[in-house]
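Data card: per-record layout.
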Amino acid sequence: MKTIARKYLSAKLKAELKALEAMPDSAVDKSEMPPITDWNGAICGAFYKPLDKAQQ
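The structure for this 56-residue chain is written out next.
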């Protein structure tokens, strides 16, 4: 979790995220998340912005 985002989270939410981070992936309940089976209309690289040569 990035430090910038942490200052906007409540203490309760920070504690929940820390507990989730400590859990193994197999213990996290993902039953409410339906699998994505239809990728029609998906756009590849929509948020990709290459760095300028001066910024590298």
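Known properties of this structure: The mean pLDDT is 82. Residues 1-25 form one domain.

See the next section for split statistics.
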